[in-house]
Structure formats: C-alpha cells, structure tokens
Amino acid sequence: MIRFVVSPDNRVVPDLAGKLPGRGMWLSASRDVLDSARTRQAFARAAKAQVIVPDGLADLVEAALVQRMLDAVSLARRAGQTVCGFQKCREWLTSGRVGVVIRSESASPDEFSRLVSGRRSLPVVTVPDRVLESAFSRDRAVYAVMAPGALAQRLIAEHERFSGVAGRPLPDPAGVSKEQAEL
C-alpha cells in the first residue's frame, strides 16, 4: 500500500515513509491502480476537495521507491550489514549470515544460480542496476547480500511496493523464471 496526502497547495504527494501530516489516502502499490485513480478522480473524492494530481504520478512514485531501496542498501553498507561481489556474497551465504540476496536487473540467471546454489529459501530482491552501483560506488555491481534484520525487512517491503508500481513480477526465489524452467 502507498499513502498519499494533499499538500498545502492542493497537490497530491506520495508519502512513502507514512509520516507526512494530513489525512492519508491509501492505494495499492500497482501501476494500474495509480493510473485509474488519477483518471477517475479518486484523489479528489477521497480528499473531498479539488486536488492537483501530477502528470506521471506512477513514474514519480517508482523513482521514489528506487531511492528508498538505494537508501536502505546504502545504510546497510555503512553499518557493515551488506557486502557486494560474487566471492564476498558466496562467503556470507556459506556462513549463513544472509537475510536477503540482492541482484541487479542485468544479473545472469545462470551465475545467480551458482551464487545461491541450493539456498532457495532466502528472499531475493531484484533492483535496478543503479541501486547497487550507487550504494557501493562502483561502475558495475551485480550481487549483494544483506544480514538479517530491520534493514533487510525494510528492503524487502520497499521492493514489493516497487515491483507493483513498476509493473514487474516478483522474481522466483530460485532465480529461474517459469519460462526458463520449462526449457
């Protein structure tokens, strides 16, 4: 779910942290729901006033959710709760210190299968390439793992909302899509 509030200048504003003042309007984290709420004047009815809904509201929410995922990974990196790179990730996986596996959208499914090799019960988060690259200040970053805890749970929750708004399906935990499994 995503909370929206009306700003003092009558604009609809996404409140992803859920902390802005005002009466909240909650919508499902789905691009279709956001687009239909905009076209059907649902925000004006819920606010009981004329409101200004920005063009490209779903794109605005999607970009903000990417930023929240980046913030979670960056905070975990500064706290020493996440590592990046195939070998370091593999070491954390074998020692059992992993709460969530993070992979970029450009990650190879075969290489990802080798990385997790049998640990199919771990949550997997697929993020846009720039999230890992920015969080670890690298030109290319494909895999990361995060220790269990509040930051891992926050990243998983933000990823679920992002997947709905971006219109992307949640990845199969095994790292293999249904189409690839049928081949």
Automatic annotation (TrEMBL):
<dbReference type="InterPro" id="IPR035931">
    <property type="entry name" value="YlxR-like_sf"/>
</dbReference>
<protein>
    <recommendedName>
        <fullName>YlxR domain-containing protein</fullName>
    </recommendedName>
</protein>
<dbReference type="Pfam" id="PF04296">
    <property type="entry name" value="YlxR"/>
</dbReference>
<feature type="domain" description="YlxR">
    <location>
        <begin position="1"/>
        <end position="59"/>
    </location>
</feature>
<dbReference type="InterPro" id="IPR007393">
    <property type="entry name" value="YlxR_dom"/>
</dbReference>
<dbReference type="InterPro" id="IPR037465">
    <property type="entry name" value="YlxR"/>
</dbReference>
<dbReference type="InterPro" id="IPR029064">
    <property type="entry name" value="Ribosomal_eL30-like_sf"/>
</dbReference>
